[in-house]
Specification:
Order of helices and strands: EHEHEHEHEEEEHHHHHHHHHH
Largest sheet: 6 strands, parallel
Number of strands: 8
Number of domains: 2
Strand content: 5-15%
Number of helices: 14
Helix content: 40-55%
CATH superfamily of the largest domain: Dehydroquinate synthase-like - alpha domain
Radius of gyration: 20 Å
CATH architecture of the largest domain: Up-down Bundle
Bound molecules: zinc ion
Oligomer: single chain
CATH topology of the largest domain: Dehydroquinate synthase-like, alpha domain
Distance between the termini: 37 Å
Structural class: alpha/beta
Strand order of the largest sheet: 1-8-5-4-2-3
Length: 363
């Protein structure tokens, strides 16, 4: 992140605040948006050779079409299929870029976008995000989740230069991914509560503007959760807009604070603990129910909204046994300990963790 905030240390100096924020330059969302990928590259004045990063599935869904459109417009394109979001794949692509690529396009769900975003950042070239699923807020954010030595790490990068999100492609994809994206947005409701708590207890820098944008995004989805349905392009439209808005809140804050609090610690704790974790947004959604209970907020409202969009609301929905969920909760405060949340410092008491999980019906 490049955002920086100076605090007023000496009132005699007058106004001393300073901030810089980085945002995507073009966001193209809607029906048949993929067909405008050529115009988008032209508008951005991209020149030279482009490399499309995709996986086996997204190669067919959108990768081939992206290449076709751009080559028809005279661009020199190549394609690289990847299998995971590992540091090894990032290193491979950075080496490929040195051989003569000038910009990257990440075409896919989380994995190709994370890898393309991170590789572009290390190689110092522009990156365009072309999401084929709306499963988490990484589609427009400045963070990439990369596996390093078996651990998922969140890397600070630049946000994409442009986002081209075709709602038709997203609506035709597996509904589970869209429901997971909804849950990742709903998670903003507890992330902003944690942020405010950290401001009150730790005097942490806090942006009302970013917090309110994030909260508004979460509650506009919570209050309209009945309208999110499988196969409806309109639902994909609503979710993509909310994910972009969440990323903008993070860009304004200069950190992931508006969209990542205790519920994300719970999700990352599960990633470390279990062999086959559920989707990121799904885990964050269940975490949001528990954290909202700990904050004394309307956890039932969160649960109802998650049920309405078809996202998991309990251990069974995440394919976990009770003990795994409790253990993840106990260890959650150990994830990013510098990020203060309702979970406080040190491990959570096991009985308290079990009680919170039982009270909310998560186990
Ligand atoms: Zn998230």
């Amino acid at each position: 992140m490049t955002a920086d905030t100076r605090h007023d240390e000496d009132s005699n100096r007058g106004f001393t605040k300073f901030k810089s924020m980085e945002l995507p330059r073009l966001i193209v969302v809607g029906n048949d948006a993929l067909e405008s990928i050529g115009d988008t590259c032209k508008e951005l004045k991209l020149k030279g050779n482009g490399l499309v990063i995709c996986d086996k599935t997204t190669h067919k869904i959108a990768g081939n079409r992206v290449i076709e459109i751009l080559e028809d417009m005279g661009y020199h394109m190549d394609l690289k299929e990847i299998s995971d979001a590992s540091q090894r794949e990032v290193d491979n692509i950075v080496s490929m870029v040195k051989e003569g690529f000038d910009y990257l396009l990440g075409v896919g769900g989380g994995v190709p976008i994370d890898v393309a975003k991170c590789s572009a950042y290390y190689a110092g070239i522009p990156f365009i995000s072309v999401p084929t699923a709306a499963s988490h807020d990484g589609i427009a954010s400045a963070r990439a989740s990369i596996n390093k030595n078996g651990n998922k790490e969140s890397i600070g990068t630049h946000p994409p230069l442009a986002v081209v999100a075709d709602t038709g492609i997203i609506a035709r994809g597996p509904y589970r991914l869209l429901a997971s994206g909804c849950a990742d947005i709903i998670a903003n409701s507890t992330a902003v509560k944690d942020w405010l708590l950290a401001k009150k207890l730790r005097n942490e820098p806090y942006s009302h503007y970013a917090a309110n944008l994030s909260k508004m995004t979460a509650y506009s989805l919570i209050n309209n959760s009945d309208s999110i349905k499988p196969g409806l392009e309109e639902s994909a439209w609503v979710v993509v807009k909310a994910l972009v808005s969440s990323s903008v809140a993070m860009s304004i804050a200069g950190s992931s604070r508006p969209a990542s609090g205790s519920e994300h610690k719970f999700s990352h704790s599960l990633d470390k603990l279990v062999e086959k974790p559920a989707l990121h947004g799904e885990q964050c959604g269940v975490g949001t129910i528990i954290m909202m209970y700990l904050h004394g907020g309307d956890w039932m409202g969160i649960k109802t909204a998650l049920q309405a969009v078809g996202a998991p609301t309990n251990a069974r929905g995440l394919d976990l046994c009770e003990d795994e969920l409790i253990e993840a909760l106990v260890r959650a405060p150990e994830i990013r300990p510098e990020r203060y949340t309702i979970l406080g410092n040190g491990r959570m008491d096991r009985n308290a963790a079990e009680l919170a999980a039982r009270k909310t019906g998560v186990i």
